[in-house]
Design a protein that fits this description.
InterPro entries: AGP_Transferase, Aminoglycoside_PTrfase, Kinase-like_dom_sf
Order of helices and strands: HEEEHEEEHHHEEEEHHH
Strand content: 5-15%
CATH superfamily of the largest domain: Aminoglycoside phosphotransferase (APH), C-terminal lobe
Organism: Micromonospora musae
Radius of gyration: 19 Å
Strand order of the largest sheet: 1-2-3-5-4
Protein name: Aminoglycoside phosphotransferase family protein
Largest sheet: 5 strands, antiparallel
CATH class of the largest domain: Alpha Beta
Number of domains: 2
Length: about 300
């Protein structure tokens, strides 16, 4: 399934070619497709490794960023994070950087994977607090560590407005787009975030959270790792059931203005996801619609 115009095609043969050329000791291990997100395609390699290949050339920088910072961040976090073990170089079979990581056992969030959502919400809050409190170790908000989700809302208004327009034109979307847009417009009038910059994961959607025995076990895919203000980091709570959401808010003790900015980020990312992937990635569209439905339900309950 191709999602982007400049997507790089990859399959098992490509993976084996890369391994034979750069890590021949792994070339005969079983290679099994392990899933694909919007940015990367993954293959499990034997029992202990995972090959990750960017879907587009510009995503390769994220792997370099992970290789630099994840070993330094991992000791400060209460759950597992990806452990890079090989920095793959561009080759004839695959023209951009790729990577191999340790395999992390766990289950992507879904029905039946978590039995106590309140505990899960507290676990996630603890992991987020730990990341945000970790010393920047000289990192600054520039280059690959400067992502839009760590900044203010206003610079994003152009593409968010276009996404709302696209969503209004989608037949069968069945969402109150006008109410969602009001939330975004209201948030634009709020004071901009202040305070010191912090480490941010950038994309704590359910696909990047692994559970084990009902608890948060690992946070994966730090491709959005950046330095900035944490409002957008909290947007993930609308991807979780109400029990997890309530426990997360209680644990983080966010003020009302931060909560409203976080909600606006949740709206912005989800409406752009619906707009961009409507015809190409139905599963991701369903995830975005579920988030937006949760936001609208919350608003009616408040």
């Amino acid at each position: 399934m191709m999602l982007h115009e400049n997507e790089i095609r990859v399959d098992e043969d490509v993976v084996r070619s890369l391994l034979k050329e750069q890590r021949p000791e792994w070339a005969d291990l079983p290679v099994v497709f392990a899933g694909a997100g919007t940015d990367n395609t993954m293959y499990r390699l034997g029992d202990e490794l995972l090959v990750r290949l960017p879907r587009t050339p510009e995503k390769a920088n994220a792997l370099r960023k992970e290789r630099t910072w994840l070993p330094r961040l991992a000791p400060h976090l209460p759950c597992r994070v990806p452990e890079p073990v090989h920095a793959g170089e561009p080759a004839a079979a695959f023209p951009v950087a790729w990577a191999v990581y340790r395999w992390i056992d766990g289950e992507v969030l879904g029905p039946g994977r978590v039995t106590d959502w309140a505990t899960f919400g507290r676990d996630l809050a603890a992991a987020v607090r730990s990341l945000h409190a970790t010393d920047l170790m000289g990192a600054t908000r520039e280059g690959d560590l400067s992502w839009y989700r760590g900044g203010a809302l206003e610079p994003c208004d152009g593409w968010v407005t276009r996404s709302f327009a696209d969503c209004r034109g989608i037949s069968g979307l069945d969402l109150d787009v006008a109410a969602l847009e009001r939330m975004w417009r209201d948030a634009l009038r709020l004071p901009e975030p202040t305070g010191r910059p912090e480490w941010l994961h950038g994309d704590l959607r359910p696909a990047n959270l692994l559970a084990h025995e009902g608890r948060l076990h690992a946070i994966i895919d730090f491709g959005g790792l950046s330095v900035g203000h944490p409002d957008a980091e909290h947007a993930t709570v609308w991807d979780l059931p109400a029990g997890a959401r309530a426990a997360y808010w209680e644990s983080t003790r966010l003020d009302e203005v931060t909560w409203l900015r976080a909600r606006a980020w949740a709206v912005a990312v989800a409406v752009s996801g619906v707009s961009y992937y409507w015809d190409s990635y139905p599963a991701f569209v369903r995830e975005c619609r579920a988030r937006l439905t949760g936001i609208l339900d919350d608003a009616r309950d408040r």
